[in-house]
């Protein structure tokens, strides 16, 4: 049996979780324009039709393989530059200039969404699930701002566990807090880790900020599709929200974008305060990112000796390994124990492998 079949999802550069992935900022795609985007090893042409809706299609024209991002948007259709074949918004070929009737060919289309100032693509075989959101803002109207775009020399999964690496808050970020996470599944594709402590009692810092919060210091991270994390942080009267939206690039590295979020506030005061709060949110995000940057340039992730403080990380790894995964580039489903077409012997081997993993 090929060893790749046995590889689990976590920190795997050959496969990724079926889900929503950010493609490009909304403002970078004007009405009637088309852009080339490489997403998880697959080349796409993403265009905005004149209705304003965004369409994502496989990049290469079924005639001779020209990249459709060289083409032209017509209405909500796209026309290939090379020999002018035209495809409608469902991907069907509707016009071939040299023929009276078009051929029955089509380009594959992918579901898109626009939120948080971003264009997202559903990368998957199944019907699209919900877009990532901050749990406590699910029903709240918000203002958004794109923060920092970055590249890191490690896998998105490895970068994301930083947010629930309880011990490193003391060692790297010098926070004199005891952090203990409680985890909860939000849905099949999302898991939340929330801090349950009120911090330590013995430091001046805690004594200073203690009057600002009644219960625990709110700090929670909700992971979506193993690739996007939404952070909620702050005392009772003011929560900061940051979305860390990551995607894997060649070689199992990370390309990420932070999205800063704050609830809409009414009136002139809201207009004045919200930009300041988004700016502050950016500073909070940068503070956390700064301490670890060097580690993620040089780390060779190899989690050989987990301790009790690493419990949440193990839970996250388990969650990621349970998710449906697709192959890098082809976006075809990876053989999985739950897949009906998997042969009994392979199923047995996968099961044995999973059991071994849980025993670690
Ligand atoms: S390659 Fe697109 S029309 Fe010929
Ligand atoms: Fe950190």
TrEMBL record:
Keywords: 2Fe-2S, Dioxygenase, Iron, Iron-sulfur, Metal-binding, Oxidoreductase
Protein name, as recorded: Aromatic ring-hydroxylating dioxygenase subunit alpha
A Pfam family: Rieske
PANTHER family with a match to the protein in the record: 3-KETOSTEROID-9-ALPHA-MONOOXYGENASE, OXYGENASE COMPONENT, IRON-SULFUR DOMAIN CONTAINING PROTEIN
GO molecular function list: dioxygenase activity
Name of the top EC class for this enzyme: oxidoreductase
Domain Rieske: 20-121
Documented EC number(s): 1.14.13.-
Coiled-coil regions, chain positions: none
Gene3D superfamilies for the chain: Rieske [2Fe-2S] iron-sulphur domain (2.102.10.10)
Superkingdom of origin: Bacteria
InterPro entries cross-referenced by the UniProt entry: Cholesterol_7-desaturase, Rieske_2Fe-2S, Rieske_2Fe-2S_sf
Keyword Metal-binding carried by entry: yes
Originating species: Okeanomitos corallinicola TIOX110
């Amino acid at each position: 049996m090929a060893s790749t079949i046995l590889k689990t999802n976590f920190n795997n550069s050959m496969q990724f979780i079926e889900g929503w992935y950010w493609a490009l900022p909304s403002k970078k795609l004007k009405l009637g324009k088309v852009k080339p985007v490489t997403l998880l090893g697959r080349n796409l042409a993403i265009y905005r039709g004149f209705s304003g809706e965004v369409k994502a299609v496989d990049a290469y024209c079924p005639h001779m393989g020209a990249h459709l991002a060289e083409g032209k948007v017509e209405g909500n259709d796209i026309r290939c530059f090379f020999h002018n074949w035209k495809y409608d918004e469902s991907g069907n070929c509707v016009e071939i200039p040299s023929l009276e009737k078009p051929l029955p060919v089509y380009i594959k289309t992918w579901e898109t969404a626009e939120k948080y100032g971003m264009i997202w693509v559903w990368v998957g075989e199944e019907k699209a699930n919900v877009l990532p959101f901050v749990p406590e803002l699910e029903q709240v109207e918000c203002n958004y701002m794109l923060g920092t775009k970055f590249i890191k020399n490690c896998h998105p999964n490895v970068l994301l566990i930083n947010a629930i690496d309880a011990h490193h808050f003391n060692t790297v970020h010098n926070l004199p807090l005891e952090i203990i996470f409680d985890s909860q599944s939000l849905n099949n594709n999302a898991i939340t880790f929330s801090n349950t402590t009120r911090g330590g009692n013995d430091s001046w810092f805690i004594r200073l900020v203690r009057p600002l919060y009644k219960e625990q210091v709110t700090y929670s991270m909700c992971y979506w599709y193993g690739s996007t994390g939404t952070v909620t942080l702050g005392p009772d009267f003011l929560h900061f929200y940051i979305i860390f939206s990551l995607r894997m690039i060649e070689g199992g590295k990370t390309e990420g974008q932070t999205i800063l979020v704050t609830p809409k506030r009414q009136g002139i005061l809201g207009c004045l305060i919200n930009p300041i709060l988004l700016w502050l949110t950016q500073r909070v995000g940068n503070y956390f990112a700064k301490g670890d940057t060097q580690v993620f340039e040089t780390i060779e992730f190899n989690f050989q000796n987990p301790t009790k403080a690493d419990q949440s990380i193990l839970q996250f790894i388990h969650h990621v390994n349970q998710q449906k995964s697709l192959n890098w580039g082809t976006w075809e489903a990876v053989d999985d124990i739950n897949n009906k077409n998997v042969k009994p012997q392979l199923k047995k081997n996968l099961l044995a492998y999973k059991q071994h993993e849980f025993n670690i």
